[in-house]
Amino acid sequence: SFWTATVITNLLTAIPYLGTTLTTWLWGGFAINDPTLTRFFALHFILPFAIISMSSIHILLLHNEGSSNPLGTNSDIDKIPFHPYHSYKDTLMLTMMITLLFIIMS
Which residues form the Cytochrome b/b6 C-terminal region profile domain (predicted)? Predict the structure, then answer.
């Protein structure tokens, strides 16, 4: 993992003017050390929760507001509430996708 972190973070040095500064900031110093591991751990721990939260908010807003209406028709006629109909459907699909992932992994 040390060499992977070294190679991947050194790719940032290819960015003109800011590359070395970004690499030094990401490492937390001039070499991969304890601050680097702490930052990478925090990134790998927090990022999935942030992605799941933003995806959930997106699905909630999409189901509540609906997508764009290019024809300008009245879209309030056939609306159903988000919960329980869409939340059960989304939970079922999430469960199926996680099950499929575990089947593929095993």
Answer: 72-106
